[in-house]
Amino acid sequence: LADTTLTPTPTSTGEPAVVHGNGHGDGHGDGHAAHPPTALGVANEKLGMWLFLGSECLLFGALISTYILYKHRVPPGEGPTPHELYDIAFTSVSSFVLLMSSLTMVLAVSAFHRHDEPRGRLWLVTTALLGGVFVSGQVYEFTTFVREGMGYTTNVASSAFYTLTGFHGVHVSVGILMLMSLMLLSFRSRLRTGREAETVEICGLYWHFVDVIWILIFTVVYLIP
Amino acid sequence: MTTTDLEEPAEHDPAPRGSAEAREVEDPHAAHERTHPPDREYIMVALILGIITAAEVATYYFDFSTATLVLLLIPMMIAKFAIVAMFFMHLRFDSKVFSAAFVFGLGLAAGVYIVALSTMHFWQR
């Protein structure tokens, strides 16, 4: 009997691959460190993010429902309603910017999967900048609406509108912070070797979710009268 | 049993030579290439999303009735939502467990709020 210990096979990056219970190594000698085996056979972190996003549907569902319920229930004389003030051309450009940020995010994930960190960082910065443009547009829109006499408490429709779009804006801002944190971690080499692509992918899921929620808001709130 | 036995599971792998599984054993990147489409596919998807968005915005400048607008805009919205979820969020390529987790939340939200809106006579306007 020569050597019966389950010695993890070192990867090319020097990090040992995790040996699964069946004795098979990860098989990814390219730096993709393996997950410990899980009951469902999927990464717990990623599943956690998907469950979180599933629960977020309930939050945004409540906010969208409240808006569509109240948008036509403003008594006469209670100030302008959101529909009277929308600038569809401006919001369309904002929507397009957010949509394109989803493309740059997925390109960042793709670059990190190829271990092309410089390009991945470039796409992350581009995504954060596009997100910043979107949030700036939202701040400009809110400011314009307030100047035109539609404050947060002007009527039920304005309250529902600001709450819905404000919550979405906060989500985009949190996404930008996540992207900047990823950049920082990447520069400081704090992302675990072999797992960086998955970490970026999990943050990417959040970013895309924010985008799909805006797809709903843009149609239901802005385009359908 | 030796360490070599543990390191070379491919010897016992019944995957036929030249098959997709065999190629993945030989080249670990093959699995990732299969699960993550090339960048040009993402760009094509973004182009399609851009075209749908342009069509959505165009409806605003025509004098459609509300019913027509709803019939035009809701399918476009659902298509955009599904395209982003399937391609950009990788639901099409990833484990069905993730799809189940997300669709459950989405379905629950849709069900709960359709009922809530119904109790408030939203559809009777």
What structural keywords apply?
heterodimer, A: mainly alpha, 0% strand, B: 125 residues, mainly alpha, 70% helix, disordered N terminus
Task: Report the average pLDDT across residues of chain A.
Answer: 83
The number of E-state strands of chain B comes to 0
- Rg over alpha carbons of chain A: 23 Å
Largest sheet of chain B: none
Describe this structure in words.
The complex is a heterodimer of chains A (225) and B (125). By secondary structure, chain A is mostly helical. Chain A has six helices and no strands. Chain A has helices at residues 44-70, 82-85, 88-113, 117-147, 156-187, 196-223. In chain A, helix 4 packs antiparallel against helix 5 (156-187). The longest helix of chain A is centred in the last third of the chain and has 32 residues, at 156-187. In chain A, 39% of the residues are buried. Chain B starts with a helix and ends in a 6-residue tail after the last helix. Chain B has 125 residues and is mainly alpha-helical. The model of chain B is unreliable at 1-33 (pLDDT under 50). The longest helix of chain B has 24 residues, at 96-119. Helix content of chain B is 70%, strand content 0%. The chains are: A mainly alpha (225), B mainly alpha (125). At the A-B interface, helix 1, helix 3 and helix 6 of A face helix 1, helix 4, helix 5 and helix 6 of B.
Compile the SSE list and pairings.
The complex is a heterodimer of chains A (225) and B (125).
Chain A (H helix, E strand, L loop, with lengths): L43 H27 L11 H4 L2 H26 L3 H31 L8 H32 L8 H28 L2
Chain B lengths: L2 H5 L12 H7 L2 H7 L3 H22 L5 H23 L7 H24 L6
Helix pairs in contact in B: 4-5
